[in-house]
Amino acid sequence: MPTKQELSACSWISPSNVGPEEPRSFHNVIALLKVFARHSLRQEGRWLHTLICCLGYDLHVSVSNAVIQLYARCHLVLEAKATFDATPFPNQYTWNHLLVAYGQNGLAAEAHRVFQRLPARNVVSWNALIAAYVKNGHSLHALHVFSCMHTEGYCPDNVTFLAALDACATFAAFSENKPNSPSVDYEHSWCANVYTKKEGVQKVRYIHMAINSTGLERDVSVINALINAYGKYGAVHDAKSLFDTLQYPNFVTWTAMLAASTHSGDGEFALLLFRRMTLEGIAPTNITFACVLDASSSIGALSAGKIIHTTILHTDYIGDSLVENALLSMYGECRCMHIAEFIFTNMEFPNAVSWNSMIVTYSWNGYVKDALKFYDLMQWNGVEPDPITYVAVIHACAGLRALEEGCKLHTTVIMTGCEHRLAVASSLVSMYGNCMLVHDALGVFASVKYHDIVLWNSMLGALVLNENYKEALNLFSQMNSVGLQPDGITFCSILEVCAGTLSVKEGETVHLYVDLHGYAQHPMVGTALLDMYAKCGIISKARGVFDTLVHRSVVTWTAMVSCFAQNGAGSEALVLLQDMKNAGIELDILTFISIINACSYSGLVEEGAHYSVAMNRDYGLRGTLDFFLSIIDLLGRSGRLDEVQFMVHLVPFVEDGICWECFLASSRVHRDIDHGYQAACHCFEVDPEKASPFVALENLCVETMTFN
Q1: For the domain with range 362-475, which CATH number is right: 3.90.1580.10, 1.10.357.10, 3.20.20.70, 1.25.40.10?
Q2: What share of the chain is helix, strand, coil (3-state, %, to 5)?
Q3: What is the dihedral sign for C-alpha 255, 260, 264, 268?
Q4: What digits encode the pLDDT tens for the residues 449-459?
Q5: pLDDT tens sequence across 221-274
Q6: What is the pLDDT of residues 467-486, one digit of tens each?
Q7: I need a labelling partner for 697 at 20 to 30 A (CA). Which of 244, 601, 641, 670 fits?
């Protein structure tokens, strides 16, 4: 609301003191119009406009300009246009205000038409059109206008550069095409095919050169925007160089540099920046905390995240929704479900982002049933699902292979108009792929008009999952033929094809291709290379890939442990586990599963049992179905079937039946008919229609009789 000082400056205006014999200064009217515009007061603005017309002040072009500005801020575009049409002699400011009115209210095409009709153009006109395109998500159009402005000889100012850099940063977010960006539209998806990251960095550098030529290289707001744009394209070296030129960076600069480091995957440097920032007395805000928590989760630095959490507890941001949601995301990505649950439970007003964070956390960490329960609970609490929610829940259905629920969600997203959102379509493709319905996955893929790299990767992943390796290679060729550059996920899928077919030669060729495209240090690709060599039984090359990786996440370490496990090198796995602890890497549930499997394959039963207890006792991690299966396998291989039976009765996932099937398999290995019979009976209770357990029991009886 307007302050008393703002209103008192124009308190002379009221219906009671309006008279034709009293001359009034329209400058005071303009002042009050600006107050109403600043606070978006629709009703008061309309009343004042009526009064202005009664007084005849609407004939003054300056007053009309202020009225148009007021209606633009109040999102009353028709009234703004009507005021423009009623202005007897509109000047350049009048035209510019109308252009801004269209741009601010989502009408970029109308703004462009006004721009074409301008009797004269100035820097403000160009800035308004660029801002209109940026605000409405048309980043490439904005950059094109910026180039035209330069070509026609207009000198950009700081507002121009800020808008152009905002366009670069906005487009980078679309061209990156992350799965958690469900708002990606068709235009940006198509443009991403022809506007690569390298070209984006070159565009930012071009703008940077133009800034230097205009003498604005010391403008802090422009430098902050440059750092942000470089960061969005992963050009962290350019961002660092700019940052180092500032003797006294302000809070925004620190935060922009933090975000750039995090976005480029250099979470360690982001944490170092945060420490420097606090040592220099710059007080972190909620945005800073959210950014540095994201950096912690990106490199799996749980310890650093916990220290930051402790710092937050001593600030006023403990109840801030942005910070709490960042904490949820950090603990979720670090697989600390119990802490994430505690934070969510104690949130006073969890918003849609909070619910989405929990659903995503459950879904991506394998607790897919909990994700579906949270989805139902979210709606029960009156929180409307959004595309991010649908992506996470569809992913949960994919994890459970819950086709019925997945089909219902498919219907829901069609009804809500989200079916052509690229991230939603990608999740549907993955869900149908997980449910072994490749034809349906191809149907969703074909129904989307434009395909981004994420959708291609989802389709590629569905084919690989269903071992349609030939079709996967054909799809990869199609991607190359349409000019799409492979990313890390693409390489991971192709490496999985090589691993699935045990094609060492092809895998080595892909390895060279990875090096050529600059993905050798990509943690996810490095892990996929490691896994490919592990499955092909070449431990030395797997270890070579591991040793060359500069940034090793918990996933990378776990993959190397798993490599030793798959190849029966349990002792080496235990040594690596100790190295992992010494490096300060927090162990997660997958690490424990891998080390228990390594112990199982190598006959190290006591060591495996020790780590199964330590997981919950020392790390507070909750066992998943895969964890319990690894324990059953560990005990079953060593013939400790009584302990296996006791364990199966304690498993919370007993309704899945697979634990009893594993128990039956162990009984068959040790030719124990009594335990095998009990296991088969429990399998029948879980799924009476399933015949395979009784076939296994019959084979057990035959094998035992033959052996005896």
Answers
A1: 1.25.40.10
A2: 75, 0, 25
A3: negative
A4: 878 888 899 99
A5: 889 899 988 888 888 888 888 888 888 888 888 888 988 888 877 888 889 999
A6: 888 888 888 888 888 878 88
A7: 601
